[in-house]
Target: Nucleotidyltransferase family protein
Amino acid sequence: MPDFIASEPNATAPDSSGPVALLLLAAGASTRMGRPKQLLPYHGRTLLRHAAETAVASGCTPVVLVTGALHEELLAEVAGLPIQAVRNENWESGMASSIKIGLAAVAPAQPRAVLVMLTDQPLVTPELLRQLVAQQQQTQAPIVAAAYGDTLGVPAIFARALLPELLQLQGQQGAGRLIAGRGAAVGRVVFPAGLLDVDTPEQYAALLSGDAF
Model:
């Protein structure tokens, strides 16, 4: 298990040393789409390539891509980018296993925080990611999440002290469970476009037509 140790309860100095790592989760089989959504065309590239370029442009390091149902195909899509790809062989068990695999990959960098994002939110921008990182560093909130509709969700950044709790997630539990459990302690960055994620053919058609927003 990754060696993430929570901050001491009596610590007074904020934990602001170390890099901010980024996990790009892409392990699913896209059953609702009927074909691999990571490989759908978008603005002259695939959704995965678009998300990967966005992740790199955020300035986070290391950037780790977690694959699962597909690996070699997704690996080809991030060729030439400073991204480490790891495969979650247990991807069918749910998102929690992908988060654990990703955290294991970034552990050697001893990140001060970890940002989690998905490949199916194509309207996420590098500016949004940088805003999440900056707000977490400035406020030292345990979590800063994107706010859309009535939801606080990913992309979201988790302070180092929260990483052991991410490792405790099980099965289908994702980062949203941890966000919900922290209530008012969670910082937020307003991101209305987060309402669009590309899970179905209808959502993909709305994205391409520009009718999503």
